[in-house]
Amino acid sequence: MSSPSAPLQESYHAQHSPFGAFASFTCGLVDSPGGFGQALRAPAKQNLYIGFKRASDAKWQLLPFLTPPKSQEGAFTGDTTVVQPPRGFDSLRPTGYTRTLGWASDTWRAADERFGFSLLSPFGEVPDPAKMKRAAARFHLAPLVNGWIEFDNRAGRAPVELVFGVGVGDDTLRPLADTAPALAGFASGRAFGYATKPGRGVALKQGFDILSPKFLDYRGLHVIAGESALVFTVPAGQRKRFPLVLGFYTAGPVTAGLTADYAFTRFFRDLEDVLAHGLAEFSRYERLAAQRDRELARSKLDADQKFLIAQATHSYLGSTELLWHKGKPLWVVNEGEYRMVNTFDLTVDHLFFELEWQPWAVRDTLDLFVRRYSYRDQHGLSFTHDMGVNNFFTPPGRSSYECDNQEGCFSHMTMEQLLNWVLCACTYAAHTGDRAWLRANRKILLACADSLLRRDDPDPAKRDGLPKRDSDRVGHGAEITTYDSLDVSLGQARNNLYLSVKALGAWVLLERTFATLGLKSDSATARATADLLARTLATKFEETTGFFPAVFEKNNRSRILPAVEGFVYPLFLGYTDATAPTGRFAPLFARLHQHLDQALRPGVCLDGTTGGWKMSSTSTNTWFSKIAIAQHVVRSLFPSALNDTARAADRVHANWQRTPGCGKDAMCDQIRSDSGEACGSRYYPRGVTACLWLRE
Amino acid sequence: MSSPSAPLQESYHAQHSPFGAFASFTCGLVDSPGGFGQALRAPAKQNLYIGFKRASDAKWQLLPFLTPPKSQEGAFTGDTTVVQPPRGFDSLRPTGYTRTLGWASDTWRAADERFGFSLLSPFGEVPDPAKMKRAAARFHLAPLVNGWIEFDNRAGRAPVELVFGVGVGDDTLRPLADTAPALAGFASGRAFGYATKPGRGVALKQGFDILSPKFLDYRGLHVIAGESALVFTVPAGQRKRFPLVLGFYTAGPVTAGLTADYAFTRFFRDLEDVLAHGLAEFSRYERLAAQRDRELARSKLDADQKFLIAQATHSYLGSTELLWHKGKPLWVVNEGEYRMVNTFDLTVDHLFFELEWQPWAVRDTLDLFVRRYSYRDQHGLSFTHDMGVNNFFTPPGRSSYECDNQEGCFSHMTMEQLLNWVLCACTYAAHTGDRAWLRANRKILLACADSLLRRDDPDPAKRDGLPKRDSDRVGHGAEITTYDSLDVSLGQARNNLYLSVKALGAWVLLERTFATLGLKSDSATARATADLLARTLATKFEETTGFFPAVFEKNNRSRILPAVEGFVYPLFLGYTDATAPTGRFAPLFARLHQHLDQALRPGVCLDGTTGGWKMSSTSTNTWFSKIAIAQHVVRSLFPSALNDTARAADRVHANWQRTPGCGKDAMCDQIRSDSGEACGSRYYPRGVTACLWLRE
Fold first, then answer.
1. Which structural domain, as residue segments, surrounds residue A457?
2. Last residue of some domain: B267, B292, B317?
3. pLDDT tens, A37-94?
4. ∠B601-B605-B610 over CA atoms, to 5°?
5. Could A76 and B340 be called an inter-chain contact, meaning their C-beta atoms sit closer than 8 Å?
6. Cβ neighbours of residue A332 under 8 Å, at least 6 residues apart?
7. Choosing among A72, A174, A270, which should be mutated to test the B contact, i.e. which has the most B CBs within 10 A?
8. Which terminus has fewer CB within 10 Å in chain B: N or C?
9. What is the ipTM of this complex?
């Protein structure tokens, strides 16, 4: 197991994203472009010109966020011998600057801290958009990211220039002053743009070679060129910080199946309106970002954990999309590079974050699952894996992902999604105290409980609590779990340790929820089922090995960490009777403790090469979002299972995300535990489960 | 000079484009993707699956319109060892099929003509959109392309399958039946899609591997995959042709500076509406395309000339964009890969085509030049080079292209654009007989004439008819012409042969136009100026060499073909007194004849290697659109200047466009005369000047 002592060279993209705009300004990966992207599955590819030039600098000093653009000049002049611009800059090396990722900020410093550039993606409690007043909506739903660029030239004897620019290569940008005189900056069509306040010390540049444009029109620009920039001058003896606003806009319907517009279009006329608002409210956004940064900084987590939470939150926000459909808000989280719409496996993991900041999102998503994405098979009610893909809402009762007659990836997840609805619903209701909603969903919860029972066995006399009946939707295939792309230890739904413990969590929550609803008999059934399930689970423990098998079939001997994932829900809700080692599930807990004790060892569920946590002993595919939940449950409920290596893994996980193996696609979830390279689930929101750590 | 006798292997893209939608379905280049693109500067990059599979075929036989897509399957499964799809097809080689480009069609045949695939881009006379009735608007402005796929299986003993499919790689498509049950096909978001009528023998496919998808959902699709297709079955003993409609849609404002929507959004609700309309009106569109095809086929032009006209018209339509701004139509032709808005240099060349099919477009563009894109310098009135770029309308009086203090490319074109307004206005008014418009523009025309005179010399006594005064807009630079990227022989506006003859054309037209307006004295001045200019021009002839110099300065000795371009306007209008060799300009004509006689020789204005026409003897950069005008003028007015080599060059020019040097970007205009490789002006509308040949 390598624990590199040489300083790691950070190189990773972060998504700087508004709330609910399915938009990101992505940057940070060394020697790579990035920039504005809306509804993309990966970082954009715009060159970013960000840096400074002191009198003593022969060339501009730019952060390494560009690749040399192919000049468009030759296309006009027919001369292909033109030197490729831009010329005249040094690309700063990572040793030449520092980067600090906060919960809601990302700041680069260079030139002995005198140069600073920061992007802010403030987030906070967002009120229910169905009831939001216009002013609040403009504040919370503005599709923009804030930033600033500064130089401390107090000791300088000559002015210093700063640049913030974007090159769209084959495309062009337009000066914003033509449509909004109060904005200095550029826009790409009507879709995105950046601006500062016009004034002394602020100049615009546009040309094929942005640092020394050869062709200048009457106002010193060249609007047929794809490279643009703001150039700021900081006089000698002064320290100046210039605000930046990066905005997005898309008018009109953006989805099909259900036809919806972005919610922000109700409150903003166009891109110019967004940018002007961002400048007007700049300090309010700055304060909000600072508040979040402070909260994370002051937590008792270590630097690696804080980094993981910050990076995960950035990517989560980039996948959020608040739509407006038939006069009502429609909440979507897109599934990172896959862009599936409200994948239920993710909803259940985003639950903890969303209950903190926008609980209505959980409620609305559950409602839409009931209204449009529920179905009944031979056992009863369940829900689809997702609601569509890439802004396309699939027909009622159908997901974009699930196929028939499959044993592995792309099969149905009927049991998993049924549990997800129950867990989300009960957790939402208990956490928010929303009794009205709970009462309105009484019948659904009862139907879910019935469906759960029947997926154990249709005959009550034969039940042992374990979910084991596949849906007839699978045809001649088999149900899978969210862990579909790992090995069979986690992929198969039937008689699955992970899913059984998750079912246990569901029954614990149902017991409480039914009691709240005054459904005493159903509450008692839930309690009894939980107890039965816990007892049955305990019998699956292999006394000889001290492990649980991952699947209670076919002599499976995989060892998995999600054995305890199901406890995160009662843990979150503070149901201590269900989570105390000495509580009602004490026998099961003791065995799980032994399981974890042994699993958290190198070569089992700690990777033998890197020391990173592995979901399964028999797969090198591990998922950060699920590691984060496992860590939270283990640290909270089974702390003595943690040895030093297991504890040290936060550094390993953080380094995976800090280096290009994951970092080239911002937050990644599916990672090879032996190399730290992402193997799926890139540009992904799910890592926000790490925010559970703030509760430890 | 090589005149290859080996059969040339055709490989070129063609733009299949609706009228005014700034949209193309591009395909045809061998082993290259293409597909749907809106507002793009180059072909799209979608894989196209078009072909057939007989019982005797082990694999699908596909036209070579794809590159192997990177499977997205691995991104989901985490398994990067998956074989890259699609598998199971042979890519037809060009020897295995034929392609016939008609004026409004493009047809591929294979399997002894039994397989057929055709794309139709019907065009015709489009009534003034300001007065168009809804039904006419839906017919003329529908943003769609028609097509069909067929197989003659009358001799077959087993069914034959046909495929038409599109793969969007990183993106996804959605089955149209979800939103429009009467459509069988797929859409990418709300932006583009393709459909046929649902029915027997029509099936949908969607998957990572489109030819043998591994994962199928409840309806046999997999909507998270980016590859989609329609599969048709032709039973044994039958010949079946299936209609195809390829549609585009963009809602809401698409431009800035002037905010405008696509005109088609007024008449079509969404993409589904467009596609359903295309199927409903299929035979009417088919008839219109057939009519155009017949007209071109029956012309007395040779096959190469017909090909050039057909290919040029396809690309012209792809650049057209009819917008709606403040309750009125707003006509735009985008400048190919540069996407400049209504570049005046192109307007004057598109004039002849547009007067035939949509004369209101010329009128509206002239009006917008007056209203927003005119200005006055020290000499008087003129017009900007263009109205903006990439859907951005520049501020009043300013183009996107023109910069200050330049001697070459990107300088101002004040004189050129002044002539362009005069020539377009007079030609429009004379050709259409639109007296009301002419009267409304009386003052503008008078101001233009005055401005023209003053650009000769402010002092009437010093005038010799030659334009020679640069605008003060150029600063310490110099005015240029549309031929900016050639050498100085055509680039410099001052004392320029090309521009002087163009001015001669303008004075000839002004004489007539002022007479029509009853402005006798102005007409007489115009006539006198034309005569003076013709006399002065004659004095520039070098008796020793038998040539005109391209520029009457600095001992220039370049020889240029656009020496006669200015005569195309009186020729078009049938002003025979000005175009007869023995007419009023006989002395000038005799000298121009000698000039052309000598210029149309290898090593002068015929390329020594290829035999292609060169605009200038001192540049290998030549422009097809301008060759076409020169050919028309020479063949019409100076036919005896044509030797066999000059005459044979249509084959050379056609072969340039038929092979990848130009063909990879559909119609190209700026071409290296020694290699046939495009060096600028790709995906370009201007070649439509070739339609002048239909008048010969």
1. 299-695
2. B292
3. 999 999 999 999 999 999 999 899 999 998 865 555 666 666 655 545 567 899 999 9
4. 80
5. no
6. A22, A320, A321, A322, A323, A341, A342, A387
7. A174
8. C
9. 0.94
